[in-house]
Write a structure and sequence with these properties.
With 339 residues, the protein is an alpha/beta fold. It has 15 helices and 13 strands. It has a 7-stranded mixed β-sheet, sandwiched between helices.
Amino acid sequence: MYSFKNDYAEGAHPNILQRLIASNPEQHPGYGEDEYSVKARQLIRQQIAKENSGVYFVTGGTQANRLVITAFLRPHEAVISARTGHIFVHEAGAIEASGHKVITVDSPDGKLTPAAIEEVLQQHALAPHMVKPKLVYISNSTEIGTIYTKQELTALSVCCRQHQLYLFMDGARLGSALAAAAGDLTLADIASLTDAFYIGATKNGGLLGEAIVINNPQLDVDFPYILKQNGALLAKGRLLGIQFFELFQNDLYFNLARHANAAATRISDHVRSKGYDLLIDSPTNQIFPIFPDTLIEELGRQFQFYPWKKIDDQHTALRLITSWTTEDSMVDAFIAAIH
């Protein structure tokens, strides 16, 4: 049974495992002060061209989102998100549980625009009787596989700065977004246009881990206290540092994402060649083909996937996710099963 359910079903890239084994007998300081974590932060700062950005390694995406949002916001302040946003749909109310309202915007392509943000601000202008929108949350790639262009992110950044809003990017699948053939953003661009973002390793070669990058120095003050108070400051921090140290050498992080994207593109191209539609045009490792339910039943005997959206009585859109480990034989088998 081949699985297209997610991009974190497998373990870690061999380089990471080998480094973990080789370094196992070594003794290092704890809490991210080990030499691997120090070097990993240096490699990331080189990539983003910002020597003074804070870089913090945590274990997962929900943890990263909750830490950043709760650290940045005062109790009466709220988050603006696309309705498909991970913090609204798939994090069990982690942000609301911390006391911050998530204000959602309908977005067919999963992306936010300055116009949508300004509409939210107008709707919440009755101070002090309504929550105060203060942070804009975006994902890149989005939860439906789309990506932001440099022009789009620049427009969002300008809008946020005009309205004194923080701009925060969820980068759980940032590798896939940056490696997309249609993309034109770099890590340096993202660092210059956002107040904070994170680099996801869990879904791109890491055993686990996300790197939170804080570019706004005012928001970086005392952030280590937030990590510690919330149980996110890992004592054996080298376990996270080693992973980013390996991923950001020799373009490994980007090469793994390119592999995942290429596998998804092969499937998308074949789906179209067979006359089927895609729910949305995604250039990343998440694709959403629309198939007859009869074909989906046949595919389900050999492959695992998520039914995403019912289109009509006889057709459903699937979500297929490829990963850095997706082999050509797996793609070949899926392509051969589509008729």
